[in-house]
Design goal:
This protein has helices at 2-16, 19-26, 33-54, 60-80, 84-116, 121-144, 149-167, 176-188, 193-224, 229-232, 234-257, 259-279, 283-297, 300-311, 316-344, 347-350, 352-360. The chain is an all-alpha fold.
Length: 388
Amino acid sequence: MAISFFVQGAIFALLVTRIPALQDRYGISDGLLPLFLAAVPILAGVGSVGTEHLVKRMRPGLVLRVVQPIVSVALLAAGSGTTVWQLAAALAVFGLTVGALDASMNMLGVSLQRAYGRSIMLGFHGAYSLGGIAGASLAWVGAHWDLPLPTLYAPLVATLVPVALIASRWYVDRQGDDQADDQADDHGAAVSMRALLPLCLVMAFAYIGDSTVSNWSAKYLEDVLHSSEQLATVPYNVYMVTTLLGRSFGDFGVRRFGAVAVVRAGALLAGAGFAVVAAAPGPWVGMGGFTLLGLGLCVLVPQTFAAAGRLFPGASDAAVARLNIFNYVGFLIGSPLVGALGGAWNYRAAMLVPMALVLVTIRYARSFTPVPAGYGDGHERPRTVDVG
């Protein structure tokens, strides 16, 4: 499973870090580019919804085994075309299948954590962060040596696809009597969106924060904190490294202190990180803020998936698929929101908005409390969930 998370992190980083090169290759205007970028998370949300219904007929492991190579080939297709319609088709396939991939991958992670009986989700997402660092580093090499996108992507895809297929042989999926019992539970249990809503909000707020860092950290350091162009590329790498470190040790924190305490601490650290960034007098203090952001935000998403699995043990696949949609909601909202506020007001003040949203997570920390057996299976009303 960790290998699949790693491969997905690398593939996604290879796409988003080479967007300027894709724009140049296809001659896409600045006005048209946001439409292409918005289409990917929208279609990914569609793919996630479709996966909720697909896993009623086939195991999540089989879905993941099929879609992960397609996502990789779609990346290569996006970098190898010559006309805009070819890019549009490749990104459409990428979006639909990456939604199915994210959903099925986290379904398997939640199922495996339940089988282990202890927190392991942060470790899986740590592998994703490591893949993201590897992908971004390879993209930097490609940009530094001015490699054409097909030359960069082709050997990597040719390596990653077989690795993912070989790793899929060891997926721990529901089989035999356990699978039949779980499928029976899935058909008999319902996912209450009222009970799931606090986790959906936490997911969206976390990705609003994450997309703020990925899309605006370089511009913020260069334009607001007056760093050099080279130094402005550092904050995102620092953020990814601290995200990896936080996720590497986060599972131990959950086992020692509990998910509620870890989520509250993560939200406080992330809020403090945004506050430091907003008040930073110079680039080095700003990078300290982005370091805190990585350590804080890194725990929220994995723990949100895990909490959904605990809340709906008889319908965890459906809960994960629905929750995964708010990944893309946050991604769609975050970057335009900060950009609009920064343009109309100023970017320091704009950083306070994702800060406030991340701090709201503390209000919903009770939703991460381990629930009794049978709770959330459709037969009891939630008693501790507060949606405002």
